[in-house]
Specification:
Length: 182
């Protein structure tokens, strides 16, 4: 049986999936690019050919984060139309549970501090997600600001290893001095 070669779009998708994990754990380094190449079975120059640069790969990963969150929001809102914002928040927490989505977002945010192209893409993704949340829930700016703040808090708490199983309020309570944890 002849070996079936992957197409460039398939290799690109494979590279994004691998890069999300690698960048979330190791940052956007040349060594990370080599790990991505090794993981998908291609050369590092081929990964650069697919994306043009480390920045191009990171932008593709940021876009994938946006797509995953958007899909999560839609599924959650459809599953719980009576309280879609709460369902979307729960879906987001589940999406973050593996560490890849939040880790990638934190790495992209760190790069964005000094890279306006990445910063602009991160802002675009947030704007798209807020628009989607507004469309799915009818929420206004105040509710959306709280929703974004809660999501940001979840990303931060998850990244530093705080137990979120009891919800964000309980998690924050465990960080307060003198608080007895259950």
């Amino acid at each position: 049986m002849a070996e079936v070669r992957s197409t460039a779009p398939q290799r690109r998708a494979d590279a994004v999936a691998a890069a999300m994990r690698v960048i979330a754990d190791h940052g956007l380094t040349t060594a990370a690019m080599q790990r991505v190449a090794d993981e998908i079975g291609v050369s590092q120059p081929y990964v650069f050919r697919l994306f043009g640069s480390k920045q191009g790969l990171l932008l593709a990963c940021v876009d994938e984060v946006g797509a995953r969150v958007r899909t999560t929001f839609r599924a959650a809102a459809a599953a719980q139309p009576g309280d879609p914002l709460t369902a979307m928040g729960a879906g987001f927490r589940e999406l973050l549970a593996g560490g890849v989505t939040g880790g990638l977002w934190l790495q992209a945010s760190a790069v964005a501090r000094h890279d306006e192209v990445v910063a602009a893409r991160c802002r675009d993704v947030i704007a798209i997600l807020l628009d989607e949340a507004a469309r799915l829930t009818g929420a206004g700016p105040d509710d959306l600001a709280r929703f974004l703040a809660d999501g940001s808090l979840v990303v931060l708490l998850q990244a530093i290893g705080v137990d979120l199983s009891g919800g964000t309020r309980t998690a924050v309570g465990t960080l307060l001095p003198g608080t007895v944890t259950p």
